[in-house]
Backbone:
């Protein structure tokens, strides 16, 4: 489970989704739009070895 997680990231279209109550970081939106943009930003900032 997530009990031992240092950080919990949530992405959900519903801004009232219960996951946001336990997440350290949350983004409201479509995961299929957000993840590609997030990966692109990581790569642009020299994080190629950490990007999926």
Residues:
């Amino acid at each position: 489970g997530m009990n031992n997680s240092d950080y919990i990231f949530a992405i959900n279209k519903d801004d009232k989704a219960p996951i946001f109550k336990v997440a350290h970081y949350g983004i409201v939106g479509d995961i299929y739009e957000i993840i590609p943009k997030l990966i692109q930003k990581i790569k642009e900032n020299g994080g190629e070895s950490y990007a999926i």
User: Anything to note?
Assistant: The chain has one domain: 1-52. The first strand starts at residue 9 and ends at 12. Strands lie at 9-12, 25-28. Residues 31-44 form the longest helix (14 residues).
